[in-house]
Amino acid sequence: MHYVAVIDKDPGSAYGVRFPEVPGCYSAADSFDDIVPNAIEALSLFFEDCEPAPPHGIEAVREQAAGSIAEGAVLMMIPYVHDRKRVVRVNLSLEKGFVDTLDEAARMRGMTRSAFVQKAATREILDPA
Is the pLDDT of residue 52 over 90? Predict the structure, then answer.
């Protein structure tokens, strides 16, 4: 499930992030690269104690935010990552040579295999291009 964020920035300020589909859910980011992770965290915290509102879609948000878009705001799809605190054990089948390389890369970064795989997968989910 994805929500549409409206991103705007005034000169000399942080990026502002708001979700017209989720009134009251806001975030900010000092750099462009921090927008998505901060927005994911905002959605996760906002829905921590309640059911997520169903997304309305980009066209509905585009109509709602037309004035902001005309002033330079942009729209960005942000995934809602449900239940970020609960750890679940999974089984992956990978080639032995790849696992050895994966473990070495994780070790060099001071990470566990699981943390490394999660970080890499998160990066791919957030930037699938």
Answer: no
